[in-house]
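Agenda item 2: benzoic acid complex prediction
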Amino acid sequence: MSTLRLGDIAPDFTAQTTEGEINFHEWLGDSWGILFSHPSDYTPVCTTELGTVAKYKEEFNKRNVKIAALSVDGVESHHGWIKDINETQNTTVNFPIIADEDKKVSDLYDMIHPNADNTLTVRSVFVIGADKKVKLIIVYPASTGRNFDELLRVIDSLQLTAYHKVATPANWKNGEDVVISPAVSNEEIPTLFPKGHKEVKPYLRVTPQPNI
Ligand code: BEZ
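Presented output:
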């Protein structure tokens, strides 16, 4: 078991998946990545989650994000379950599902929370940047399906703030105004933010989203 924190290098591993063996870092290449765990195959919430991710694949592609799911069930089980997901969610699962039967990856990413469930993975989400560093960790309990619109929203924020000296305010959505990073001096603002800005308070300076 290890504790992973934001800014750490995402642990590398080799694992069996529904798309063959992958080496995680090699598989990521220059892309961003999402690694997300679910408790078990053939369960209702997980079925809806994986179907939803399959439908969102194009949105992840647009953001240069590769996506891999994981549970502690085996490849055979995953393949059987994928048929059910495709049938019931009216989709085609189009991303690898890792078969972590020996819990090697779950342990590396601390995806088993014994006081919630001793053997099954919780619903962890790790967003990994192109530099292989962990950019976001979210953990949900088994009983709550994830909001994948929120994941797209966070990725938009992570990618924007990685390349511009801004941060995104509460409930921000792609296209809305952003706040200028506190590290930017007032003198730098006209060069960095030619679209203009509004100073609400000296520490709260708002500007149109710079990359659109
Ligand atoms: C589900 O995916 O539906 C689920 C999995 C484990 C516990 C509870 C629900």
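Discussion summary: Residues 39-40, 43-46, 142-143 surround benzoic acid (CB under 6 Å).
Owner for follow-up: CH.
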